[in-house]
Amino acid sequence: MPWVKVLGGVVGAAALLGLGIILGHFAIPKGANQPASQELDLDPEILETVMGQLDANRIRENLRELSKEPHVASSPRDEALVQLLLQRWQDPDSGLDSAGTSEYEVLLSFPSQEQPNHVDVVGPSGDILFTCRRSEENLTKDQEAPDVLSPYAAYAPPGTPQGLLVYANQGSEEDFLYLYNEGINLQDTIALTRYGGVGRGAKAVNAAKYGVAGVLVYTDPGDINDGKSLPNETYPHSWGLPPSGVERGSYFEYFGDPLTPYLPANPSSFRLDSANASGFPPIPTQPIGFEDAKVLLCNLQGNSAPEDWQGALGCEYNLGPGFRPDGNFSADRTASAVAVPSDGNTLPHALPLLPAPTSLPATSQVNVSVHNRLVLRNSSNVLGIIRGAVEPDRYVIYGNHRDSWVHGAVDPSSGTSVLLEISRVLGTLLKKGTWRPRRSIVFASWGAEEFGLIGSTEFTEEFFSKLQERTVAYINVDISVFANATLRAQGTPPVQSVIFSAAKQIPAPGRSSLSIYDNWIQYFNRSSPVYGLVPSLGTLGAGSDYAPFIHFLGISSMDLAYTYDRSKTSARIYPTYHTAFDTFDYVDKFVDPGFSSHQAVARTAGSVLLRLSDSLFLPLNVSDYSETLHSFLQAAQQNLGTLLEQQSISLGPLVTAVEKFDEAATALGQHISALQKGTPDPLQVRMLNDQLMLLERTFLNSRAFPDERYYSHVLWAPRTGSVATFPGLSNACSRAMNTTSGSAAWAEVQRQLSILVAALEGAAATLRPVAEL
Ligand SMILES: [Zn+2]
């Protein structure tokens, strides 16, 4: 594939060359016998070589191996993959300088094998009128593999609540409030909710506040399949979620090992009693497929649910409580027939309904039987290191999790396939003596992410100081391909420029006349006051292992993937997410046939990695933080200004602090530009790079959000207030709004403002010349 034509930049001219010539460059060993130079800078030829060698077919073969069997955290197959990664990273021809594992003893949650979780409709005399599937239908033989974990809500407590069913939409606080205001007595009911809106665990937390006894969660075909729900419209006939597919997931509210917050989960560490640990759902909860949800939901009585609560199950959604007197339950899967048929496709779609049960369904209830168990298990991280030639004590970390819910072809193996291909190409150059990075590169395969980012969080707890002192940036590639339309990047402002530089020099898959950047800007863009129209970078929440790096350690982080054309699908996420249908065949046929999007992500992430590890000056543009600060400040002035004035609270010091930041960032940028024209003194380079690296740390305040776990970044902590400004200020104002002057809530607003001013002043001080205080 020829390289896309690009304008400008140091690699511009070289990028016009074809792949043949690129490989030609590689044939001439370069710098093999030269001593590491303090001026060692990014080598465009090495970059081209790496881009040319990242191979789509090898990524495909990696994925086939990684997703061959289910590999939930701590399972034998998960441990086998630990060995696979070690073997690759210790390979004499394509491995890294060193590789090893570290184990933590962490609290996981699994369904009981002896007592499977089940959900039944129970008649007045205790007879079972309907029972939900206990496992997904075996459509492609992958679903009957012995280690397929039955659908469950990890960390939901055991229990067997039974009650009348209500429909509670997405299970948000407003949804339950609506039901309450409708006069529905929620006490001891079972609430059926759909995925989306709020987090998994929040559905049970909100429900319990209203006395709900148990929660069911399903995926509505309107939210995941663009309305399609028939077997012949879904996988294996399309990428749609089959009717029996169930999204598994962690219902734990925080991240990290639940028993050792802020401490690494070593065997000797202090542990909370699991009965006292917080963040677990308060009531039994179980996910089900939309095929079963349809039977429950379409038989509900009561008022019709609001328009925006309706979905695509093909019936009117009512609120309940309880079922209609003429309700009808397809009885093909009553207690005696719960096992998944081994012949696969025959059940249950076309079976006739049995004669109406003798007892009236109106008084029938739903029983939710959950038998999940909490267990301490060993989970491993695998780390592989390429030692830096000039600055071995500066780390660029590139990571992804290894554990999946079932086969996990997309989540997370699409990311690990890319990770392994990047490490193979770099490892080969390393072993041939062709290249060694300026800074150290650390590759990481995290354990137990699906349960709550556990492996990565424990790692940041164990090496807190070392990582904070020495890590330049963290690159995360979890799901590398959601779909094959466009790049999607999330990150803090300093990483924007390096992602842009990489994306401008790589051809977009399937559209080789366009760069990834030019393709990206057509899908996600924004108008920047500094640059004009640019692709828009998303912000980092806590969806993957970057969370402890950015929120807890304050390390500039990013997450990269290829994703959807939003004009073609409104799916919440790729349809087989966390189900037994997320398989190699699914990716190979429907997500990325040919693996060109995987290759595009490998090239983008590989280029970003090389730029961060090899550039003389770190390619972190700290002045890009100014745009964020100004937009937050403007939102505060416009939406909170009057309110704050009434309380005699001034935004003046914040305005001054933002100005100081602007000045310091601009001056630093000019200083670096000037130095880049000459041959700068190595110590001067190092001092400036430390300023760039440490900027993100200055936004941390570990006392800012005492109610949050790990969140201490004053710009990116979770925002619950409606004003899109600094999260601490937004949240404090929304709490104070209806309180009187002099209340504790208004004092908190003032405290949050002072925290911000101090952080921004500190940030500016870090960017100013080091000799000035
Ligand atoms: Zn993942």
Automatic annotation (TrEMBL):
Q: Where in the numbering of this chain does the PA domain appear?
A: 164-249
Required cofactors, per record?
Answer: Zn(2+)
Gene name, please?
NAALADL1
How is this protein situated with respect to the membrane? Single-pass type II membrane protein
Could you confirm whether the keyword Cell division appears in this record? no
Q: Name one GO cellular component term.
A: apical plasma membrane
Kindly indicate whether the keyword Zinc belongs to this entry: yes
A biological process from GO: proteolysis
Quaternary arrangement and interactors, per the entry?
A: Homodimer.
Functionally, this protein is described as follows:
Aminopeptidase with broad substrate specificity. Has lower activity with substrates that have Asp or Glu in the P2' position, or Pro in the P3' position. Lacks activity with substrates that have both Pro in the P3' position and Asp or Glu in the P2' position. Lacks carboxypeptidase activity. Lacks dipeptidyl-peptidase IV type activity.
Where does it localize?
Answer: Apical cell membrane
Q: Which Gene3D superfamilies match?
A: 3.50.30.30, Transferrin receptor-like, dimerisation domain, Zn peptidases
Keywords for the protein's UniProt record, in alphabetical order: Aminopeptidase, Calcium, Cell membrane, Disulfide bond, Glycoprotein, Hydrolase, Membrane, Metal-binding, Metalloprotease, Protease, Signal-anchor, Transmembrane, Transmembrane helix, Zinc
Please state the protein's primary subcellular location: membrane
Organism placement in taxonomy: Eukaryota, Metazoa, Chordata, Craniata, Vertebrata
Q: Where is the Peptidase M28 domain?
A: 381-589
Q: Which family does it belong to?
A: Belongs to the peptidase M28 family. M28B subfamily.
Question: What is the protein's name according to its record?
Answer: Aminopeptidase NAALADL1
Q: Name one GO molecular function term.
A: calcium ion binding
Q: Which InterPro entries match?
A: PA_dom_sf (IPR046450), PA_domain (IPR003137), Peptidase_M28 (IPR007484), Peptidase_M28B (IPR039373), TFR-like_dimer_dom (IPR007365), TFR-like_dimer_dom_sf (IPR036757)
Task: Tell me which residues make up the Transferrin receptor-like dimerisation domain.
Answer: 649-768
